[in-house]
């Protein structure tokens, strides 16, 4: 995570709230800023990146951590 990256911890959240909260956080950022979203809900790992891409943002990467935790790195369009 870089200094200009915001982190949003959504462990314990399920779809569709994972995307809704990600979208709301992205709306707060300036174009080009990075957002790292942390999930523990498996369906969010496919649904959220797909939805974020449909909104025009860029997925910079997805990291799988221990204990079924994923970090999705997003660059705001």
From TrEMBL:
It holds the Pfam family TusA. CDD domains: SirA_YedF_YeeD. Residues 8-32 form the UPF0033 domain. Coiled coil: none annotated. PROSITE patterns: UPF0033. PANTHER family: SULFUR CARRIER PROTEIN YEDF-RELATED (PTHR33279:SF6). Belongs to the sulfur carrier protein TusA family. This is tRNA 2-thiouridine synthesizing protein A. It comes from Methanococcoides vulcani. The lineage of its organism: Archaea, Methanobacteriati, Methanobacteriota, Stenosarchaea group, Methanomicrobia.
């Amino acid at each position: 995570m870089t200094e200009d990256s915001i982190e949003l911890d959504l462990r314990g959240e399920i779809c569709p709230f994972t995307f809704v909260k990600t979208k709301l956080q992205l709306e707060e950022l300036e174009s080009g800023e990075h957002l790292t979203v942390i999930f523990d809900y498996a369906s969010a790992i496919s649904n959220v990146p797909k939805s974020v891409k449909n909104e025009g943002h860029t997925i910079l990467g997805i990291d799988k951590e221990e204990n079924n935790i994923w970090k999705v790195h997003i660059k705001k369009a």
